[in-house]
Amino acid sequence: MGIDHLFVDESHKFKNLTFTTRHTRVAGLGNLEGSQKALNMLFAVRELQSRFNSDLCVTFLSGTPISNSLTEMYLLFKYLRPREMERQQTINFDGWAAVFAKKSTDFEFSVTNQIIAKERFRHFIKVPELAMFYNEITDYKTAKHIGLDRPVLVEELVNIAPTPDQQEFIQKLMQFAKTGNGELIGRGKLSEEEDKGRMLIATNYAKKMAADMRLINEHIYEDHPNHK
């Protein structure tokens, strides 16, 4: 078809790429299975790279190339620098993490307000080498570089105390997160598939509760001055 290069706008939509690791108990690594959309993009990129026997062959454009975890940096290299990673023997995530990331255990609050020990990759190591590797494939522009005229942010934090209904619902939500009993939040019994996404359900209800209890159930809860 005569295609020799790809330009991918909003490339962060393809960050959910599959990868393998032995660190299955480490939090914050994202979805190991990835998405079919990201895998299709990898196939397209690899086709061009094999055709021209070269890395790159694609330009990713994004305002948020890395936002949630250090695995996103690894996956960016996996897309763009497979031959160089193979030369460095960092083609798989575990090899890359052994060189550039440091794992540690720290105490965190869980969604049910309990203190638990969590193991995460919290720090980059060999930062100069990693930065040089990253800078080889990136060119970035900030608002300062392009002289973008922006209004000055005037920020005011307002602390709104929870209503009695919200305080009661918070306790129910914590119990729901622990037990999966949907009746606590008015959902009824969860299916097996729903229970896998229990924390997503809890997060969704928490957002609604924080805004207005009537979003939970307009027939049970009434308006309150402290609602947003």
From TrEMBL:
Origin superkingdom: Eukaryota
SUPFAM superfamilies: P-loop containing nucleoside triphosphate hydrolases
InterPro entries the UniProt entry points to: DNA_Protect_Modify, P-loop_NTPase, SNF2-like_sf
Protein's recorded name: SNF2 N-terminal domain-containing protein
Organism expressing this protein natively: Volvox carteri f. nagariensis
Lineage: Eukaryota, Viridiplantae, Chlorophyta, core chlorophytes, Chlorophyceae
